[in-house]
Specification:
heterotrimer, A alpha/beta (349), B mainly alpha (503), C mainly alpha (147), B: 503 residues, two-stranded antiparallel sheet, globular, C: mainly alpha, 5 helices, flat
């Protein structure tokens, strides 16, 4: 946008001031979803993946339905509360697997979302959940870590407790319990906070393995080995076919092909019969009493948007993998997903 | 180099200037912050493209941080949390009718801080990033502790002041021990029925503007909102009594505070408000004539404002050379990069040299624009105090509401927090507790907890605080010096008071 | 001696209860300081009150009851009604807009000592313009969610 068009925008807005009073509430929308809709998200950050992904989806929906939509980063506990109080459909929520993982890990403020809310469509996956070691670490593969722990060596893993960051750790612990029964307690969680904190644990030699993301840590993996900050990917928790859908050039200087080396089946974390994988998926949550017509309307609108194909490009540009499933499919899919992780968490307790 | 020049068109500079202007306005409205300004303009950067977008956002950042001084000085309400220490000397000056002079001092200090930190960022970013990762939980805790020692030296009665500070820390602990800091996410210090409201505790900004803004209005209401005007006998006219000679002999202060600001900004998680508090502490401890600080001394303004503007360059250091935001505003700034598909991380500067030079240009230019905008607008801004109170106060309450509601993107409890802390602030002053130490305790309490508990969790011994690293030892020496100094000052002033009462 | 010191300094924090560790320390600090203040400051102060040299805060002071409690009542009503009205027009900011107009006007009236026509009209214009401006710029231009 060039300068003159900003003036134009400002000018138009000022002109609209007079009309705005009357018009805002009664926007020209035909469906049951009308007026101003607020999308609350379970994260407080406007720089993070949840916000970015939600605004891509909300913008597309708003344009398609010709309504006002605004994404507000209020955080999980507030977002759930807003949703509880508004059955009219003016408040929607977008969040990811944390919404049920928090419940499974018994974190305060989380309840069973399948019981308490209506699950809406899934929209995208962030394939970046990763585990890294220092570049000069003795562990060359994740299997080295499993073997080392199995041989009684203590391995410390920096994670943020109670959710997405912990699930890979739990699965690893579970795999060790299966392959080397009784040795799983040698895998120790170092509970810490942000990505910065997790990296710091690695730099300080307080952790041997950290949870991270492809997006945030890719550049660290390209530092020379003698750099204290240099890291190496060991494991991406995403499914193989998720990463296969990523842009071929991958992220930064790491190509899709390189990323594929770190996913199942090249890296195995067993759950007994199958191997563990985890995709961080974003989906809608609705108030339980919200009109079914709105649920259908959003499903309908999103299938049209995804049929057009433009949103997929936007999502891929930001390293998200498009993954639209209408709400009835999404519920079933997510419930199955939850039950798998429920078993893992139950096993290692 | 010529490639870069081609990226810098008129639009670029206009956007940086526009950003600085809008930022100043945001910062100047009590309750609106630089972070908010950057957040609301973030979607615009989609359309603007990376370079133009960054120009706008950096302008907003610099302007927003600077604008905070205006309500701090004129109304005793910190416009942004990092201008808290600006109120300590700014408001007393405004009450003496020197509001304009105070603002001019602050503007000059701000631009000095901003430019020094930009220079440091430009010259030493990768080197400093290397240094900043030497600070683990232990060292960060000690930095917070050092900042907390200011409580002892700034209180009127040391015992009461320290108690107020501890009370502030206690208040900051209400809510969950947050998972996002690595805590266990459990709530404490509250009743179960309050959990829906207090789950995340009290938010900093509503607490600040409640305890300063609303409490001031309550105190005025109690007095009957007497005089029609908010300020008395104001010195208007030629520069409001300002001249550059005021900076004579203050160069050390300016440079030291700018360095402290840059340095604290650089440490991820330690946060903006600690910077100005720390700079203020050091000026109080190190300067020879610090006894007037807190009663309206320009040197306090210089320390506070140069440090909080130096934050900008500082907070960009870890962002651009580690991919880690140094404060809440740069955390939003990350969004601008990801929106454009650009990664920030240790290789950002070598791989995006153009963007890097563009950012530096925008940062320096925004600082200069900010200076001229504010320096010449101050004469008019300072007249806010001429607005009759019956017009001014309702508007302040209204803007406080907007700010409190908007800070966490629309939460009504934050508005009630205003009232709760307004009343609390009123009561505190009535029973003789001290507001400034309490607020400093509140600002730093949460971080103190996380760094303290996490240090012990991994080390399993209190000894870690002393044996961790040479940096820790140096910090202990500074803490000891700071405490010893404030005790000495306390004894001296008590002796002086004795002398006065006996004679 | 060496081992005695290190065992004295050693501490083990259970993650499950780590949220209470720091508050525990702060409680002790606060309790200790409070006791000190009670002995050193409060007791002498109360003695002075009894002797009639000092007055109790708040209770013993004169205050403009009308304006003080009026302010409190107005603010409570303002905050409360804002969300009630706002709920009628979800996410439009009308709750803030309309209730602010009333609030700003009433508070202006209350703080005026002499109500001349000119002052009341100024206050009324201000009450209409200020909230509208804030609402327009923030809610419309910048799309900030308002009650």
């Amino acid at each position: 946008m060039s300068m003159p068009s900003i003036y134009k925008t400002l000018g138009t807005s000022v002109l609209m001031a007079g009309m705005a009073f009357g018009s805002a509430a009664a926007m020209a929308a035909d469906g049951p979803l009308r007026g101003n809709v607020r999308v609350v998200i379970g994260s407080t950050s406007t720089g993070g993946d949840t916000y970015q992904n939600s605004s891509i989806v909300a913008d597309a929906l708003a344009e398609h339905l010709d309504i006002n939509m605004k994404v507000d980063a209020v955080g999980a506990s507030s977002a759930f509360r807003f949703l509880d109080r508004d059955p009219r459909g003016n408040t929607l929520m977008i969040f990811h697997d944390q919404s049920y993982l928090g419940y499974l890990y018994g974190v305060e403020g989380y309840e069973d979302i399948f019981e308490k809310y209506t699950i809406g469509p899934t929209v995208a996956i962030n394939p970046g959940n990763a585990y890294l070691v220092p570049k000069d670490s003795p562990y060359q593969t994740l299997n080295d870590v499993i073997e080392a722990v199995g041989n009684g060596e203590e391995v410390r893993v920096a994670i943020q407790p109670g959710g997405v960051s912990e699930i890979g750790f739990s699965a690893l612990k579970n795999a060790i319990a299966i392959e080397h029964p009784g040795m799983e307690d040698n895998l120790v969680a170092v509970n810490t906070g942000s990505q910065a904190d997790k990296n710091q644990q690695l730099f300080d030699d307080q952790a041997d393995l950290i949870n991270g993301t492809v997006q945030a840590n890719e550049q660290y993996t390209r530092l020379p080995e003698d750099d204290q900050k240099a890291m190496r990917f060991l494991w991406l928790t995403a499914r193989q076919d998720t990463i296969e859908q990523a842009p071929e050039e991958g992220l930064g200087q790491t190509s899709r092909e390189q990323l594929l080396e770190y996913v199942e089946p090249n890296v195995n974390v067993t759950m007994g019969d199958d191997n563990f994988t985890f995709d961080k998926e974003f989906f809608f949550l609705y108030n339980k009493d919200m009109d079914q017509a709105i649920v259908d309307q959003i499903d309908q609108a999103l299938s049209e948007i995804y049929a057009e194909g433009e949103i997929q490009e936007t999502q891929k540009n930001s390293f998200f993998i498009p993954n639209f499933k209408p709400s009835d499919e999404a519920v079933e899919y997510l419930e199955t997903k939850m039950s798998v992780y429920e078993d893992i968490i139950a096993n290692i307790q | 180099m010529f490639d870069i020049l081609s990226l810098l068109d008129i639009t670029f500079f206009l956007l940086a200037a526009l950003g600085a202007l809008v930022g100043i306005i945001f910062g100047a409205i009590p309750g609106m912050t630089a972070t908010m300004a950057v957040a609301v303009c973030l979607p615009l950067t989609y359309a603007l493209g990376l370079n133009h977008g960054l120009a706008l956002l950096l302008g907003l950042y610099v302007g927003g941080i600077s604008g905070g001084m205006v309500p701090a000085v004129l109304l005793n309400i910190p416009g942004t949390p990092s201008s808290i220490t600006t109120t300590f000397d700014g408001y007393p000056m405004a009450q003496k009718g020197e509001g304009e002079r105070a603002l001019r001092v602050s503007v000059v200090a701000s631009v000095v801080g901003g430019l020094i930190s930009a220079a440091i960022l430009f010259l030493f970013a990768p080197l400093l990033a290397e240094f900043s990762i030497k600070f683990s939980y232990v060292e960060k805790f000690l930095i917070i502790l050092l900042a907390l020692t200011v409580i002892a030296s700034m209180s009127r009665n040391m015992l009461v002041g320290i108690f107020s500070g501890v009370l502030g820390i206690w208040l900051s602990l209400i809510g969950t021990y947050s998972i996002s800091d690595g805590g266990n996410g459990k709530t404490r210090l509250m009743f179960d029925f309050l959990e829906p409201y207090l789950f995340e505790g009290f938010s900093l900004l509503p607490v600040l503007i409640g305890i300063f803004g609303i409490a001031t209005i309550l105190l005025e209401a109690e007095e009957g909102v007497k005089s029609g005007l908010a300020g008395k006998n104001i010195t208007f006219g030629k520069g409001g009594g300002f001249s550059f000679t005021i900076f004579k002999g203050r160069l050390t202060n300016l440079v030291r505070s700018s360095f402290i600001g840059t340095f604290v900004g650089m440490l991820p998680g330690v946060g903006g408000s600690a910077a100005s508090v720390l700079a203020y502490t050091q000026e109080k401890n190190l300067s020879r004539d610090s006894s007037e600080m807190g009663k309206g001394a320009p040197q306090g303004l210089m320390a506070s404002e140069s440090a909080n503007n130096a934050l900008t360059g500082g907070a960009l250091i870890p962002l651009l050379s580690l991919g880690i935001p140094g404060d809440s505003t740069t955390a939003v700034l990350i969004g601008a990069f990801t929106l454009q598909g650009i990664q920030v991380g240790p290789l950002f500067i070598p791989e995006n040299a153009d963007t890097w030079y563009v950012m530096m240009t925008a940062l320096v230019f925004a600082n200069i624009v900010m200076f001229f905008l504010m320096f010449y607008a101050i004469k008019h801004i300072a007249k806010v105090v001429l607005v009759p109170k019956y017009i001014l106060y309702p508007i302040i309450v209204m803007m406080c509401v907007v700010g409190a509601y908007a800070i966490n993107y629309g939460i009504m409890f934050d508005v009630w927090t205003l009232l709760i802390f307004g009343v609390l602030g009123y009561l505190i002053q009535k029973v003789g507790l001290e507001v400034a130490p309490l607020i400093i305790g509140f600002i730093l309490g949460g971080q103190a907890e996380v760094y303290f508990v996490k240090s012990l969790e991994s080390a399993g011994s209190y000894a870690i605080f002393f044996t961790k690293s040479p940096i820790a030892v140096v910090l202990w020496l500074l803490i000891a010096a700071s405490v010893a100094f404030s005790v000495m000052m306390g004894l001296k002033s008590r002796a002086r008071r004795r002398l006065e009462t006996s004679s | 001696m060496e081992s005695g010191l290190s065992s004295l300094l050693s501490v083990s924090i259970d993650f499950e209860t780590s949220h209470l560790f720091f508050p525990y320390i702060v409680h002790w600090l606060m309790g200790g300081l409070f006791a000190l203040i009670l002995v050193l400051n409060v007791v002498p102060f109360l003695a002075a009150v009894r002797r009639g040299e000092r007055t109790l805060p708040i209770l013993g002071e004169s205050m403009d009851k009308f304006r003080f409690f009026g302010t409190l009542v107005l603010i409570v009503a303002y905050f409360y009604l804002m969300s009630v009205v706002g709920n009628l027009f979800p996410y439009t900011g009308y709750g803030f807009l309309f209730v602010s107009m009333v609030f700003v006007f009433l508070m202006s009236l209350m703080y005026m000592h002499t109500r001349t026509r000119r002052k009341v009209i100024t206050a009324a214009i201000n009450a209409l313009v200020a909230p509208s401006l804030a609402w327009f710029i923030l809610a419309k231009l910048f799309q900030i969610t308002l009650p």
